[in-house]
Write a structure and sequence with these properties.
about 425 residues; eight-stranded mixed beta sheet; 16 strands; binds histidyl-adenosine monophosphate
Length: about 425
């Protein structure tokens, strides 16, 4: 006996009701963003590993621990993308001309994390970026769009919260890192192992620690918001004013640093209110130096990505939305009845969702219709063929009519 081949750890199939949610989210995402003049783009799933070591950062968990990478024919280091922003920045570095490049995309991402509920090794993101200019309005617009999407998906405001922070400019980050490192060095013996390893290379990441003892120590640590340059502070104030005046509620979270190194200034995260381990649904921020880290051009940008699987967990799709209204089963007892069949042609050209099934056993056809939520059956069996008739059965109203095959017009009977 052969063994079954199972799914690769941390991956999952998406099917049935889950797939309906998946498609509903993607459709809503594109429809909301296209109203704001975003254009869709697809970039490759494989990229040069160097793209992510330079953009996301060599010291981040994503690059140092979680990359799926391989040497391609001994020539070049390739990896499966862990996120979409770096690929879009690579695209913008070669294709941006002037004004705003407003991009939307979606697709699978890969991170070799420890799998758990809501955390996969292959997961999907919807992703949006505005590249080309730095302005508080753009930051506001992207956050606004996230809220509009939640609304479109039927996720009510009491299910999520928006955390907001400013990471300041790269210079602000450098001087703040020094301050933080100095403060944390006094507690070196009490810090967790991971935090100690970050102290020299990337002290900002310690702010993200989940370790309770680290968190106690961090309570009195200097806050980045208190060490921003005047310019950075003013910029952040403008973003907050725009949010406030448009009644977008947010919580300022000075410890929000994000797990990717390319951010500067505005950073944000939409989290579920429920106390889940994987509570970040949508996250992003401004990355003014990212393109200059991977190319000779210096172009600012901002964006966010949401985990599709995490959004799917938050939404419910009503039956009406997920099932097409008039679904027709064309039930035929024998293949030969389909040759030169004018009703078959009508079905192909008809707007409703349909399926053609051939089976000698009419009972089986009826039970198939029942189990799969069909609303109509058009039946052509031996009896009908002999008498040149068809039967149209309305399964919802439990009624049926018989028609002459030569006169039956689908569009007149099902509306
Ligand atoms: P991120 O915070 O790494 O940011 O991921 C964004 C979202 O992807 C998370 O909030 C979460 O919903 C989802 N996600 C991340 N990892 C997993 C996983 N292992 N399993 C399931 N869902 C996951 C970025 O990726 C940035 N590129 C966002 C961005 C776009 N910043 C600017 N533009």
């Amino acid at each position: 006996m052969k063994n079954n081949i199972n799914l690769v750890k941390g991956t999952h199939d998406i099917y049935g009701a889950e797939m309906e949610k998946f498609e509903f989210i993607i459709e809503s995402f594109y429809s909301v963003c296209k109203k704001f003049n975003f254009q869709s783009i697809q970039t490759p799933i494989i990229e040069q590993q160097e793209l992510f070591s330079r953009a996301v950062g060599e010291q981040t968990d994503i690059v140092s621990k979680e990359m799926y990478s391989f040497l391609d024919k001994g020539e070049i280091n390739i990896c499966l993308r862990p996120e979409a922003t770096s690929g879009l920045a690579r695209f913008a570095a070669s294709n941006y001309q002037s004004g705003l490049m407003k991009l939307v995309t979606h697709g699978p991402m890969f991170r070799r994390e420890r799998p758990q509920k809501g955390r996969y090794r292959q997961f999907h993101q919807i992703n949006i970026e505005t590249i080309g200019e730095k302005s508080p309005y753009i930051d506001f617009e992207l956050i606004l769009l996230a809220g509009l999407l939640f609304n479109e998906l039927g996720v009510s405001k009491n299910k999520y919260k928006l955390l907001l922070n400013s990471l300041g400019s790269k210079e602000d980050q450098l001087s703040y890192s020094k301050l933080l490192k100095k403060y944390l060095s006094d507690f070196k013996n009490q810090l967790s192992e991971t935090s100690i390893s970050r102290l020299d290379k990337n002290p900002l990441r310690i702010l993200d620690s989940k370790d309770p003892e680290d968190n106690e120590i961090l309570k009195n640590a200097p806050k980045i918001s208190e060490h921003l340059s005047t310019e950075s502070k003013n910029y952040f104030e403008q973003v907050k004013k725009l949010l406030n005046s448009n009644e977008i509620e947010f919580i300022e979270e000075p410890k929000l640093v994000r797990g990717l190194d390319y951010y500067s200034h505005t950073a944000f995260e939409f989290q579920t209110i429920e106390d889940k381990r994987q509570n970040a649904i949508l996250a992003g921020g401004r990355y003014d130096k990212l393109i200059s880290m991977i190319s000779s051009r210096d172009i600012p940008g901002i964006g966010w990505a949401a985990g599709l699987e995490r959004l799917m967990d938050l939404i419910t799709i009503e039956d009406e939305k997920s099932k097409s209204k008039n679904k027709i089963l064309f039930a035929v007892q024998d293949e030969t009845y389909l040759i030169n069949n004018r009703i078959l042609k009508q079905i192909y050209n008809f707007k409703y969702n349909h399926e053609v099934r051939v089976n000698k056993n009419i009972k089986k056809l009826f039970s198939y219709a029942d189990k799969n939520n069909f609303s109509f059956i058009i039946l052509i069996g031996e009896e009908e063929i002999n008498s040149n008739k068809i039967i149209l059965k309305d399964l919802k109203n439990k009624s049926q009519q018989t028609f002459e095959i030569s006169k039956f017009e689908l569009k007149n009977e099902i509306r």
